[in-house]
Amino acid sequence: MLCACCFYLTFAPHHLILLRVMAQIKADLLILGSGIAGLTLAIKTARHFKDKQILVLTKTVEGESNTRYAQGGVAAVWDTATDNYEKHIADTLDAGAGLCKADVVRIVVEEGPERVREIIEWGARFDKEKNSSDYDLAREGGHSEHRILHYKDLTGWEMQRTLMEEAARYPNIRVLEHYFALDLITQHHLGRLVIRVTPGIECYGCYALNKQNGEIDTLLARATVVCTGGGGQVYKATTNPVIATGDGVAMVYRAKGRVENMEFMQFHPTSLYNPVGENPSFLISEAVRGYGGILKTADGEEFMQHYDPRASLAPRDIVARAIDSEMKKRGTDCMYLDCRHLEKEGFVAHFPTIYEKCVSIGIDPMKDLIPVVPACHYMCGGIMTDANGQTSIERLYAAGECASTGLHGANRLASNSLLEAMVFAHRIFAHLEDQLDVLDIRNDIPDWNAEGTTDPKEMVLITQSVRELKEIMSYYVGIVRSNVRLKRAMDRLFLLYQETEELYKTTSISPQLMELRNLITIAYLITRSATHRRESRGLHFTTDYPELLSFVEHTVL
After folding, report:
1. pTM of the predicted model, to two decimals?
2. Which end of the chain is more exposed for a tag (fewer CB within 10 A), N or C?
3. Is residue 215 a contact partner of residue 41, using CB atoms and an 8 Å limit?
4. Catalytic status, residue 316
5. Catalytic residue among 68, 139, 289, 316
6. Contact 115, 423 (CB under 8 A)
7. How many domains does the chain contain in total?
8. Which range is least confidently modeled, 273-277, 297-301, 482-486, 536-540?
9. In this predicted model, what pLDDT tens digit does every residue of 439-472 receive, in sequence order?
């Protein structure tokens, strides 16, 4: 029997003997995910390579992604009269708590404005100042200047709309909706022993479940790019949509690719507290605090000045821990955001969705304090890549939230994520310019085989395991951690892993089962990485090692 510390070392794909012919779909470029990273890359490649076929996979519909839920905006040095690259770089490095890769930070900050200009050319409608052609630049926590371009409080939705309309112009982009990527295809599927230290691992595509007919197809390409978003559904309270189950990171880890810094899961300080419970939790954008909202207790007292001189505009890790600390200290279920002093017309114009949501549950932001609580929001670690988006597996790239490029370090600076996705989508495209004509498409890949499996008799086994997983991670691997909590989490995750693998070996594939497997992998990676980091840094705080010690640079699994 494997111990809990190493149970994922043998977490490899099953059902791989060729017994019957399944559908094969070939393309020059395979992109898993249709958010900002995936569609930006698809558009750029399609424009440049009119003779190449680009295949984009999404497990629901094209418009459903983490991107569309982004409220705040995209950070870029825009007003050079007051802002500059060095300020944005300094803010990013400060938020990252010493773990950002300085060269990557400079790349993203300096290349970012051009990528923003591109999406504006494609039709993105960022808000402008009243009676002016100048953009209305917002400021968020951790930023020293106003540099956030936004579209009301629906920036992600607007950028997703723009990219979908632009992508529809290119006949060589094919979007396959309701396709669930199951596993990446490597030499492992050709009968070769592949372990994490095997040199020259290559990716040839992926197996994917067609959710509309239940068949598992083999998708082959010259190069594959993982743009599958985050894994926020590993926690009970999360602002992530229900599709955010860490599929890409889990697939790369199973394929023996390198994953790093998974302990740094960012909790957004201000999701709307709703006693009824919601999944996902509704986000109260950081831009509200940038607009003048102030964090307070139920008694109306400010408290953030006790934790950081920047008060309500401190970086997210500091604010989330402060709110968590105040809640525990006072025995309350939430803290509050005070917007009563703000002018109503301007607030509603900037945050119409937030205003309407609050009113819908009986809260008038102009008269009432808004109850807020931290919720899992963004995965700062992920698939390890270089400055061109290349992973440790050849012919495989990653971009967006699933990738760990080195930009965020131990804590992401607000509104840097959309910027990073566009910059790395462009850099992957630039790197592939000379590669797509050189790489081939493998024709000797076996089809997926599910012989010997049966339909699951009790779906409750899967749904209950998901519920248990969320409870484990929320109580033991949340904002504040300890050695005892991490050990307890690892022990319980091991039991869930064993039960789920037995289901996987004996029952037919379903999206629910695969999402459970992926969530267990993400939970393991977060917990294991947190166990390795014996210090408190950025988003990782442990009561056993409360000081920042520079004990570990990067946790690579």
Report:
1. 0.92
2. N
3. no
4. yes
5. 316
6. yes
7. 2
8. 273-277
9. 999 999 999 877 766 777 778 889 999 999 999 9
